[in-house]
Design goal:
The protein is an alpha/beta fold and 179 residues long. The protein is 23% helix and 22% strand. It has a 5-stranded mixed beta sheet with strand order 2-3-4-5-6. Strands 7-8-9-10 form a 4-stranded antiparallel beta sheet, with no helix packed on it. A two-stranded parallel sheet has the order 1-11.
């Protein structure tokens, strides 16, 4: 079973919000299509007002920049957990990691650095948009966040909070994709 990961697009009435940005075409052929998906939903990518990041792993973040090195959603504010920002943006982060992870760290620091002026760091319980609340769910990464979207029913966007070996061992044929 191929499981495609989707990037939620939330309309609150006053906000157009993406949760994560996918891998930006850097991992597999089914990714890197986010701008087109936003357009096909009837929205201009320039109308995205907020991007809520669950965490800064490449498959959630590396869709941040276009080929020109500029943010794909330039009018958005970018929300990330304060512990996640501090972890990834530490000056010695890349060199403190094993060499095999240096490119991973460099890419995440590159993308986060490109939006530095538009970043809002958040903590557990913050209302990041009308009816949208941040939930600290550390574990997968130090500052992983999920988001609860209120309405007639509540939707919780969990990012990678539920990816674990028990699910993987129970269903070894399930594969997870990016974007």
């Amino acid at each position: 079973m191929d499981a495609r990961c989707n990037v939620p697009l939330i309309e609150t009435g006053s906000e157009l919000i993406l949760v994560d940005l996918g891998g930006g075409g850097k991992f597999q052929p089914t990714e890197g299509l986010l701008e087109g998906a936003v357009l096909s939903s009837g929205h201009d990518p320039l109308a995205v007002t907020k991007v809520l990041l669950t965490h800064a792993h490449p498959d959630h973040l590396w869709g941040m920049l276009g080929a020109d090195g500029k943010p794909r959603f330039p009018n958005a504010a970018y929300y990330i957990g304060a512990p996640e920002w501090d972890f990834w943006m530490a000056p010695d982060y890349a060199t403190a990691m094993p060499e095999a992870l240096h490119a991973f760290a460099d890419g995440s620091q590159r993308d986060l650095g490109a939006i530095r002026e538009r970043v809002v760091t958040i903590k557990d319980g913050d209302e990041v948009a009308p009816g949208v609340h941040a939930i600290a769910t550390p574990g997968h990464t130090p500052g992983h966040f999920s988001y609860a979207v209120s309405g007639p029913e509540t939707l919780v966007v969990t990012g990678d909070v539920v990816t674990n070996e028990i699910v993987s061992f129970e269903h070894p044929t399930w594969r997870f994709g990016n974007d």
